[in-house]
Each structure stands twice: as structure tokens, then as C-alpha cells.
Amino acid sequence: MSKQKKDIIEYRSYDLPVNFPVILLTGDRWHISDIKSGRLHFHNCLEIGICHSDEAVMEFYGVPTPIKAGNITCIPRNLPHTTYSVPGMSSLWSYIFLEPEDLFRNYIHNLELPISLLQNFPMLIMHKNTHPNVHFLVTSIINELQQKRPGFQASARGLLLALCIEFLRLQEDQAADIPAFPPENALVISPALDYIRENYANQFPISLLADLCHLSGTHFRRVFNSIMGTSPLEFLNKTRIYKACALLRSTEKTVLSISEQVGFRSVSSFNRYFIRIMGMSPRSWRTQLPQTEAREDWKKQTILEFSGWV
Fold this sequence. Notes:
Structural class: alpha+beta
Oligomer: single chain
Strand order of the largest sheet: 2-9-4-7-10
Largest sheet: 5 strands, antiparallel
């Protein structure tokens, strides 16, 4: 009996701006090919998508879900999936990537909404005919982020909060089409990724991550490397460096202060890792572009280098 083919999984990390952790991918560039990718992918943040035209298929571990023009999708972080257009079509999409916890951290307590709810969004697929309010909010957010009129960030933040509350209500009411997947299809290293994301500035042993995933240390390292393409320690240090990049361009804190804030025990170790990963020193990174240009350059981040786009 032949072995079942193992899914190849690709990790896509989006470096969101510190003060407004949201990026928008939209326009004629974002057509999805009708050629199915040979691998699944997952993100480090929440993905909200809208299919503008044609039809597509979103697949989760071999389980296909049809997508039609007008569908809104909510894909939580660490959920492997892939999307491809129906044969002969080239569906057009817009995507919003965001960190709800960071975006609403200063607002959530006034709304009596536990921040923990924002860490566990459901996978949702909604059509504009059955969920017109969700469709209105998503299109309004896209317009705000595109037009960038005065106060657009405050407006978009409010609309995004309303949208996330709608998602949580749908989850509670079970009013949306929420495909059910067997527990074994969950990303096995997801607890480790979540822990790193929330505790990257702290010191902890890799064995703790293995325990969170209910794996032995050796097996955990092997599985982590096969999915992420790097070791747990290397991924942890890359996470710290990427967080430092955001702080270098969004604050005036010293390099020493930032190195300590992101979890490095010495500034020399921080500098060494930074140069190895980013190809330049922290000070060069900070001064390479004017602040406004640096922020705009970050927002132009593209995923066209990955398979599946036309």
C-alpha cells in the first residue's frame, strides 16, 4: 500500500507596521492562477480576502471549498490552505492582513471584549447576499486604505473593529459556512508559533515549545524544520530581528534599547544576527531610507514571488 503524499507547507510572514498593523494587497496584480499550487501556505497574521470576479477553490488539507465572486474569506493565522481559480478563469482578489490584538489593544477594554477572542478567529466564508454587512465593511475598509484621505487610519481601525466583532458574532451564532476539519489536520506546531509570537522577547528553552506541541524535543525540531525550513531557535531569532526592524523605523529608541526589548541578551549578539539576516547593520537599516519612504516601501510588500499568482 503506497504512502499518502505529504503536503508541502510554505510559511508566509508579513511585517506589519508597528503603529497601524494593517496592509492591503489590491488591484489588477492580484489575479489567482487556475493552476493548483503544489503546496499549502499559512500566514503569521489574520487574512481577510474578497473575491471580486470569477470563481475559485480554497483548499484545506485536500478539502476543497468553492468560492464565488462576492465571497468574503476570513483565514486565521497558522491555518494551511491554498487557493486556485476554476479552470479557464483568473479570479481577482483583494487581501487585508492585520494583527487584531495589536490594532485594538488600546480600545478593546472599553468594549468589554476579551482580547483572547481576537487571538482565535474562526475560518469563515461568507457571501455578500447572505452577509451584506460584512461585505459592506470589507469594501469600505479597502476604500479607506486605498484613498488614504485625512483620518483614514482612524476610520479603517473603526471599520476593522466592527468587522472583527461581526466575525466573532458569526462564530458564536454559527450563522456562517464554517467547514469542519478533523483535529489531526491542525498545524501541529501552531502552539509553538503562537508562543514565539507572544513571548519572543523572553528567554525560554526550546524544550518548552516541544512540550506545548506534545512532541519530543528531537521530533519537534524535525517537524518544525520540515514545515518552516529553519530551526526553532533560528525562527525565534528571525522573529526578534523583524520586530527590531519595525522598531528601528518607527521609534527613536537606541539600538541597545531595541536589542534588549526584542529579547537579545547582548547588543553584540543582536548586531551579529541583524547583519546575518538583513545584510546590514541596525543603524544602516534605520538610515537607509527616509522614514516616510521606508514605511511606504514596507506597504508595497508583494507575494507575487510565490506560486499561484498571474
